[in-house]
Amino acid sequence: MTDMPISTAPKRSLYAQDARTKKRNRAEARFRTYGMAAVLTGILALIVLLTSILGNGLSSFRQTYISYPIELAAERLDPEGNRNPEEMASVTTFGYVPVLAMSLQAFLEGEGIEHSMGGRELAAMLSEEAPAQIRNMVLANPDLIGTTIDAQILVGGRIDGFFKGRVTMESAERDRNVSVAQLELAQVLADLGIVETRFNWDFITWPDASGSRPEAAGLGVAIIGSFYMMLVVLALALPIGVAASIYLEEFAPKNRLTDLIEVNISNLAAVPSIVFGILGLAVFINFMNFNQSSPLVGGLVLTLMTLPTIIIATRASLRAVPPSIRQAALGLGASKMQSIFHHVLPLAMPGILTGTIIGLAQALGETAPLLLIGMVAFVREYPDFLSTHSNTFPLMGDGATALPVQVYSWTQRSDPAFVERASGAIIVLLVFLLMMNLIAILLRRRFERRW
Amino acid sequence: MSFAKLSVSVLAVAAVSVTAAAAQSRDNVQIAGSSTVLPYATIVAEAFGENFEFPTPVVESGGSSTGLRRFCEGVGENTIDIANSSRSIRESEIATCAENGVTDIIEVRFGYDGIVFASDINGNSFEFTPSDWYMALAAELPVDGAMVANPNSNWSQVNGDLPDQEIAAFIPGTRHGTREVFDERVILQGCEDTGSMAAMMEMGMDEDAAEEACMEIRADGVSVDIDGDYTETLARIDADANGIGVFGLAFYENNTDRLQVATMNGIVPTVDAIATGEYPVSRPLFFYIKAAHLGVIPGLQEYADFFVSDDIAGDWGPLAAYGLVADPELAATQAAVADGVLMGE
Predict the structure, then answer these.
(1) What is the least distance, in Å, from the CA of B206 to any CA of chain A?
(2) Tens digits of residue pLDDT in B234-247
(3) Residue A93 is nearest to which of B32, B51, B55, comparing CB atoms?
(4) B48 to chain A nearest CA, in Å?
(5) Domains and CATH numbers, chain B
(6) Chain A: nearest CA to B70, how far in angstroms?
């Protein structure tokens, strides 16, 4: 600027920035950095969350099994010798434990594998689920008695943890539930291919198991329960929510009453979810006599919780449809209802679907209201869609749990193996949410293309 | 008046549902209550479902008080059949039950739960007496005829024999049944043993006031109430190497690779020491059966019999393996359950 001739024009150059421009540019650069930092913080938090969950939980999809010939001795399993399943049922799962342990002992002897353990310690290597598995097989097919079957059965949670790196020789020395000898034998058997850790679907399909057999705990009942509840929410909240929104937005007069309703809907969206649980207990269980712990009641409670979200989203998307569309339809002689159902509603559909899916996702992750209606429970029977257990109302009347509830109850169990299970359940829950959001996006694209 | 109307209509509906229940009833047992009893109840429920033709019972947790409140809501298909409890039922609860028509209750004591003090496995070992805990955790201690705020911040200050380690206690929050036992069996006992209680009564307090003062826990951050579960206490100890937590024996037994247990009065908490009563901090565990549901809900009697059978609740059963201290008088309990002996008979 030094060489420039003196003129009346302001001293500005397009090439050199003056102080004010520099200041503004600096402010912009700062803001961008803040923004980037905010995004990075979010991404970092997500990475930490995902690595922790995936690191802990992925192993729950793999399970350790042992396969060896099991001799189903007739004198132990069918003392009467009649092969009558009813008589054989008197031999409980406790009676099957020695059968499994003795077969294992005989097998190890036959293979020449040396170990220093007694029968009780050997039996402790197997899952407590195994006797029940074999017992069910035998009761279903009494002819198996007296034969030797090759079955693959679960090993105990601590041995399973050894192959997943959760249990080590050092920790086993301090751990009263597993011994170093057991781990050494397990390692020998694994080298021989008798014990193997492999992927399995049982974690998804099996029901919950008690605290003493984490290796057998699965998500089956929780997934079915969550699915039923989502069905109820979708079947009730979507039509009611959309109908209410259309009426409020398009037909209702603007007066004090509708203002009051509007305020209340916005208010309800912010009410803590446990309040809906209290309401559900009073109305659906105590007054209407629906079954406690049933997905029907859970679904009804979650419907109440989701309705405000859906109504607010639907009204917003109805409002976003330009008035010219309505006016054009009315101008061509359509009735008000025709204009709404033929023109406004299809245009608003993407927004309504987004709102519904967000509401459903919220409902899928909800635990607090379910606590009060008895769904935070230990349930092992798969719930039927139409309950065969007698009920006042059979539709979805069986007891069930839900996915987030399963996470909650597993984090409370004392066996460290349940940490892995809980993280595995979170992974399943996240996959479900991802799928729901994908469906939402796909549906939205489809509807948008039409217009 | 509307309240009266409402209750009449509710009663009418309830009556209808009860008659409906008599005609066709629920066919699975429903249980709710203590989270301490929950793991035992689920082990029993699981084995029951496997070995009997009846469906597996549904077991809810939520706490002893919640369980008993729901138990006392009334008789009928939509009320629970069994309440699990880590304490015995209170007089007030029996009264509420009676008001709602639940007059016949069978009390079943199936074993004992030990309460242990455990710290990080790599840290110092501790040998406690109740007095140590009282001196460490009391809000105020009587000194020369006046109550002063607890000055102790290190275990070696409390008792010269204890290691030089900062006091950081994680005790169950007040909503837990375990806290009641801790307060009474450890803190109050320590208060009496140290002579503090006598000192307080000399200062002019009556017995109730002195007991209350004894059991007041300091709130200056040295002792932290854990309102969650033992898993939370364990996580806190993982994070704080000085931490000492209060656990149930079963929880400790499942985590012996991470925790070391402290002795109390020189006794190591084991199943045997608790069964004989040598180890002082333990409590009985109960479940309560609604007698009116026996014979109506299929499998209820069988479940109760199965629960207290030697196979399950005995010394070698799965409950003992999980950490339950078997009841030495189990045979008497078995007979009482089989005969359906009601409370107060």
Answers:
(1) 41
(2) 999 988 888 999 99
(3) B51
(4) 10
(5) 2-112+283-339 (3.40.190.10), 114-282 (3.40.190.10)
(6) 11
ipTM confidence score: 0.84
E strand or H helix at B69: helix B64-71
- Ordered by where they begin, the domains of chain A are 60-200 (no CATH), 220-450 (1.10.3720.10)
Residues 18-37 of B with CB under 8 A from A: 20, 24-28, 30, 32, 35
pLDDT digits (tens, 9 = 90+) for B68-78: 998 998 898 88
Distance CA B4, CA A442 (A): 55
Per-residue confidence band for B13, with pLDDT thresholds at 50, 70 and 90: very low
Can you give the pLDDT at residue A77? 84
The pLDDT tens digits of the residues spanning A324-333 come to 999 999 999 9
Interface test mutation site (partner B, options A210, A370, A373, A411, max chain B beta carbons within 10 A)? A210
Half-sphere exposure (CA, 13 Å, Cβ side) for A351?
Answer: 18
Contact B58 A378 (CB under 8 A): yes
Residue A396 distance to chain B (closest CA, Å):
14
* Contacting residues of A for B50, CB less than 8 Å apart: 93, 132, 135-136
Is A377 an interface residue toward B (CB < 8 Å)?
yes
Q: What is the pLDDT of residues A229-243, one digit of tens each?
A: 999 999 999 999 999
Residue B253 sits at the chain A interface (C-beta within 8 Å)? yes
Chain A interface includes B315 (CB < 8 A):
no
User: By C-alpha distance, which of A385, A95, A174, A196 is closest to B258?
Assistant: A174
The residues facing B117 across adjacent strands are B246
- pLDDT of res. B10: 45
- For residue A208, give the DSSP letter: -
Shortest Cα–Cα distance, A395 to chain B (Å): 14
Report the C-alpha gap between B18 and B79 in whole angstroms.
11
Question: What b/e readout covers A334-368, taking b as 16+ CB neighbours within 10 angstroms?
Answer: beeeebbeebbbebbbbbbbbbbbbbbbebbbbbb
pLDDT tens string B83-99: 999 888 989 999 999 99
B122 touches chain A (CB under 8 A): no
List of residues 6+ apart from A252 with CB closer than 8 A = A258
The CA distance from A209 to the nearest CA of chain B, in Å, is 7
Let me know the angle formed at the C-alpha of A225 by A224 and A229, rounded to the nearest 5 degrees. Answer: 115
Tokens read off for B44: 């029993």
Residues 6+ apart with CB under 8 A from A116: A181
Q: Is A389 on the interface with B (CB under 8 A)?
A: yes
Closest residue by Cα to residue A121 from A92, A97, A154, A152: A97
The rounded distance, in Å, linking the Cα atoms of B299 and A414 is 29
B125 touching chain A per CB within 8 A: no
| Residue written as token pair 């706490």 | B63
**Residues B28, A381: C-beta atoms closer than 8 Å:** yes
- Single-letter residue type at B251: F
CB burial readout A131-164, b (16+ within 10 A) else e: bbbbbeebeeebebbeeeeebebbbbbbbbbbbb
Query: Distance between the two ends of chain B, CA-based, in angstroms?
Result: 39
**A12 phi/psi in degrees, rounded to 5:** -130, 145
Most B-contacting residue of A158, A174, A414 (CB-CB within 10 A), to test interface: A414
Count CB pairs under 8 A between chains A and B. 126
